[in-house]
Design goal:
InterPro entries: Ac_CoA_lig (IPR011904), ACAS_N (IPR032387), AMP-bd_C (IPR025110), AMP-bd_C_sf (IPR045851), AMP-binding_CS (IPR020845), AMP-dep_synth/lig_dom (IPR000873), ANL_N_sf (IPR042099). It comes from Arthrobacter psychrochitiniphilus. This protein is of the alpha/beta class. It has a domain of about 120 residues: ANL, C-terminal domain (GMP Synthetase, Chain A, domain 3, 2-Layer Sandwich), CATH 3.30.300.30. It is about 30% helix and about 25% strand. It is built from 21 helices and 30 strands. The strands form eight sheets. It has an eight-stranded mixed sheet with strand order 12-11-8-6-7-14-15-23, sandwiched between helices. Strands 5-4-17-16-18-19-20 form a seven-stranded mixed sheet, with helices on both faces. A four-stranded antiparallel sheet has the order 21-22-24-25. The longest helix is centred in the first third of the chain and has 17 residues. It starts with 12 loop residues before the first helix and ends with a helix. Bound molecules: 5'-O-[(S)-ethoxy(hydroxy)phosphoryl]adenosine.
């Protein structure tokens, strides 16, 4: 595998010390603990026989059309199967069964559009919509096992599409709406998608923002697998139309029958592919299957968020383009019969109080968001949330990146009224569901630490050689035993699956994160130890952005690092060597930023691009990103003795002074 920095490299020494001497504790209130879904010791029993624990959860939380008799098969590692001989339908579990149980009138989704339009779907109504979409997709020729690329904004049709695919056994592959046409095309090609579901566009900060043109561009070159493009009318923009290929959602789904019977699919039938950045330029299609994924997402949602479906209003602010929008918007809340809020827009549109206005309006009781958003709210000032009634909030969640204790304390005090427990949840696209988090009615919360492995999950921290480290020490985060929602592979690339996750340490899943046990045995996440960056909780690969930069004719070489950033956690900083006369072009930095935006998507645009004469390389030609990170973070440059040319760092410093 590629150069691995030590976990401690990712956080400056002082910051780490501060974190680990954190001694504030927030025990659940007596009242919270008394009413909590999980209030006793769930760990001993679960960890004594993990597969048995998950089998119990699965039977309790899901309705199987054919009950399973086998639990875990790990005879061919690292390929696991869970509940293999059972059959289950994800959409039936998320919808029909709640209606059959008499809860059809319960609100499933309160949708709030960016311009302020709203829609409410009860479970009965959402079930009908999904049945219609399933029928419409089948009419377009979609059959079980086919892949569907989904390129939609945060509107109810996104959830409807995913559940309709799951219902008929088609495999969805969501591509985040902020990704470019090129990114969409490479994902369509990799999965050989037959259908694309998109919208004319969405709204961003009060203005229409388009999606359909990117689909047209992606499919403009021949040789793709797409037969039809279904287009939701959302912002009313004019769109280009390809006769015979494009169909309006309202003409197909809108006119379809509301009768559709869900049949069970094998537990290991693929549910979805979701592409995520790895350490190479090529995104990995993370493959999830049905039974295990639904079991762990449902269990963790109930246990970690203490979900009381009759009374709670849950709001996960993640976009459906990321795994959090799959597990904790589309699947778990509906499987658990929750009422949830779905919001299309950004937190600052039309004003910086929008989130709090939504909390007040829908009486949100559980809010799940990302540290980057929390730090932004802190910057905007606490007088903004103070204008709204946030008294409905009883639990707060955090995901996507480490939450610094200062942000944690602010979140608790200002948003949580100094009483709502905070659950910091560590997991990944690959893990499918939450792996490390406090249990809010049990755990004494500690600001900044994700704390405890979930019941039934075997997390460990190991040293370079794979030996467990003692409490008080750091190393690499690994998972020692298979878990129900684990990825089943990388789409079409079993070798890469083994190589990426299972080759670093024998018999263990290597997560790519540095971590430390503190003296109490709580886990602290220390950031990535590979070439993956985390920008506002979104994963981006340094190599992918470097490839985008060098694909521009003005760039000879490029190196990208994730530099610490107060708000976004990390920010993309690129070092480029220009070709020929490009250095005289006054707009070159803007041109290159836009080029990256076009190649990958706006989220990948470097915050800073520094033009340099050379890049620091080892004798074997490997770029020493660690040294560039020192420059980008304004630190003294660390040990550069392995450089092929040890004057390079001086040359870079000299050029940046100019
Ligand atoms: C990081 C998002 C610290 C981590 C669900 C991981 C976190 C990557 C946390 C996965 C957390 C996620 N504390 N770091 N609570 N949650 N991460 O695949 O580096 O988009 O490997 O999944 O985000 O990002 P992904």
């Amino acid at each position: 595998m590629s150069e691995v920095t030590t976990a401690a490299d990712n956080q400056s020494g002082d910051a780490l010390e501060n974190l680990l001497t954190e001694n504030r504790r927030f025990a659940p209130s007596v009242e919270f603990a008394a009413n909590a879904i999980i209030h006793g010791d769930e760990y001993s029993k679960a960890n004594a026989d993990r597969p048995a624990f998950w089998a119990d959860q699965s039977r309790e939380l899901l309705s199987w059309s054919k009950p399973f008799t086998k639990t875990l098969d790990w005879s061919n590692p690292p390929f696991a199967t869970w509940f293999e001989d059972g059959e289950i339908n994800a959409a039936y579990n998320a919808l029909d069964r709640h209606v059959e149980a008499g809860n059809g009138d319960r609100v499933a989704i309160y949708f709030e559009g960016e311009p302020g339009d709203t829609r409410t779907y009860t479970y009965a109504q959402l079930t009908e919509e999904v049945k219609k979409a399933a029928n419409a997709f089948e009419t377009l020729g979609l059959i079980k096992g086919d892949r569907v690329a989904v390129y939609l904004p945060m509107i109810p049709e996104a959830v409807i599409t995913l559940l309709a695919c799951a219902r008929i056994g088609a495999i969805h592959s969501v591509v985040f709406g902020g990704f470019s046409a090129d990114a969409l095309r490479s994902r369509v090609d990799d999965a050989q998608a037959k259908l694309v579901i998109t919208a004319d566009g969405t709204f961003r900060r009060g203005k229409p923002s388009s999606l359909k043109p990117a689909v047209d561009e992606a499919l403009s070159a021949p040789g793709h697998s797409v037969q039809n493009v279904v287009v939701v009318k959302r912002n009313g923009q004019d769109v280009n139309w390809v006769e015979g290929r494009d169909v309006w959602w309202e003409d197909t789904v809108g006119t379809a029958s509301t009768e559709h019977t869900a049949v069970g699919h094998p537990a290991e039938h693929p549910l979805f592919i979701l592409y995520t950045s790895g350490t190479t330029g090529k995104p990995k299609g993370i493959l999830h299957t049905t039974g295990g994924y639904l079991t762990q997402t449902a269990y963790t949602h109930r246990a970690v968020f203490d979900l009381h479906p009759e009374t709670d209003v849950f709001w996960c602010t993640a976009d459906v383009g990321w795994v959090t929008g799959h597990s904790y918007v589309t699947y778990a809340p509906l499987i658990n019969g929750a009422t949830q809020v779905m919001y299309e827009g950004t937190p600052d549109s039309p004003h910086q109080g929008r989130f709090w206005e939504i909390v007040q309006k829908y009486k949100v009781s559980i809010l799940y968001t990302a540290p980057t958003a929390i730090r932004t709210f802190m910057k905007w000032g606490e007088d903004i949330p103070a204008k709204y009634d946030l008294s409905s909030i009883r639990l707060l969640g955090s995901v996507g990146e480490p939450i610094n204790p200062e942000a944690w304390m602010w979140y608790r005090r200002v948003i949580g009224g100094d009483k709502a427990p905070i659950v910091d949840t560590w997991w990944q696209t690959e893990t499918g569901a939450i792996m490390i988090a406090p249990l809010p009615g049990v755990t004494s919360a500690k600001p900044g630490s994700a704390q405890v492995p979930m019941p039934g999950i075997a997390v460990d921290v190991v040293d370079e050689l794979g030996a467990s480290v003692a409490h008080g020490h750091g190393g690499y985060l690994v998972i020692r035993e298979p878990w129900p929602a684990m990825l089943r592979g990388i789409w079409g690339d079993n070798e890469r699956y083994k190589e990426t996750y299972w080759s670093r340490f024998d018999g263990m899943y290597f997560a790519g994160d540095g971590a430390k046990w503190d003296e109490d045995g709580d886990v602290w996440l220390l950031g990535r130890v590979d070439d993956v960056m985390n920008i506002s909780g979104h994963r981006l690969s340094t190599t992918e952005i470097e490839s985008a930069l060098v694909s521009h004719p003005s760039v000879a070489e490029a190196a990208v690092v994730g530099a610490a950033d107060e708000t976004t956690g990390q920010a993309v900083v690129a070092f480029v060597i220009l070709r020929g006369s490009a250095a005289e072009d006054a707009d070159i930095v803007t041109t290159l930023r836009n080029h990256v935006g076009h190649e990958i998507g706006p989220i990948a645009k470097p915050k800073t691009i520094l033009v340099v004469p050379e890049l620091p390389k080892t004798r074997s030609g490997k770029i020493m990103r660690r040294l560039l990170k020192d420059v980008a973070e304004g630190r003294a440059v660390g040990d550069s003795s392995t450089l092929a040319d040890n004057t390079v760092m001086n040359q870079i410093a000299e050029s940046l002074r100019k």
